[in-house]
């Protein structure tokens, strides 16, 4: 008696997907700090929003903490890729802690823009998700009260600034390109003199991954996104697929795959958020191959060649 043949499944894999340059750099900073100084190295907050990555670094000797007061004297500490308020490095310096800042350079760019706008006397309207570490870090760059948060077009309509003619806006780097465009349009409609950033705040990796999902969604019956539930850019990829009219689901690992999700699916789209390693993509492909005769095809919409420099003090260790 022979086994029944596996049903066919066309797998359309988005490119680019997975790690971006900022995530790559942040993980490398923790690894190099461990190589240079030995374990333990402390990391304030998840270095990136991915449990597999965090657990891998824990196994190498990284200790993750929520706040700096959990870090003992004379220890080495790394700040996450999402950025931190100015008070955090100031606190580290006052305690004599040696720290490495793994803030993504594109987030740091938004921080500098915020400082400049406040120096110019502008009140900043910041488009982002309340409570996200990147939002907390950006608000922590400027004096309290000099920035207001909006999340939606409805928030823009309800916003009543003290000086409507002296506003500027900035955005979180990991937002939905389409949603943010609508929110910016609403701001510009209500406040024609509002000043925007010199360039796009939503980072290239977020935009590229969303564009790649749009490209494959047209050909797919459903889309799986590998990423963490607290990863903003991963959640946006699910929304992009759903907006294209396709069933979409976020999973962290192959073990979470719900086979029922694949009922009736002939062509499955697959992508990964910017903090999910390629290893997890391959793990999922292997799991799909247990039940299906998988035919893989990659659709590349753009090629990413950006790389960011390491902080001083770790370049020599690289």
TrEMBL record:
Isopentenyl diphosphate binds at residues 49, 82, 132, 231-233, 275. Its cofactor is [4Fe-4S] cluster. (2E)-4-hydroxy-3-methylbut-2-enyl diphosphate binds at residues 49, 82, 132, 173, 231-233, 275. Binds 1 [4Fe-4S] cluster per subunit. It comes from the Bacteria. GO terms for molecular function: 4 iron, 4 sulfur cluster binding; 4-hydroxy-3-methylbut-2-enyl diphosphate reductase activity; metal ion binding. The active site is at residue 134. InterPro entries: LytB/IspH. GO terms for biological process: dimethylallyl diphosphate biosynthetic process; isopentenyl diphosphate biosynthetic process, methylerythritol 4-phosphate pathway; terpenoid biosynthetic process. Pathway: Isoprenoid biosynthesis; isopentenyl diphosphate biosynthesis via DXP pathway; isopentenyl diphosphate from 1-deoxy-D-xylulose 5-phosphate: step 6/6; Isoprenoid biosynthesis; dimethylallyl diphosphate biosynthesis; dimethylallyl diphosphate from (2E)-4-hydroxy-3-methylbutenyl diphosphate: step 1/1. Its EC number is 1.17.7.4. Dimethylallyl diphosphate binds at residues 49, 82, 132, 231-233, 275. [4Fe-4S] cluster binds at residues 20, 104, 203. Belongs to the IspH family. PANTHER family: 4-HYDROXY-3-METHYLBUT-2-ENYL DIPHOSPHATE REDUCTASE. This is 4-hydroxy-3-methylbut-2-enyl diphosphate reductase. It comes from Sphingomonas pseudosanguinis. The gene is ispH.
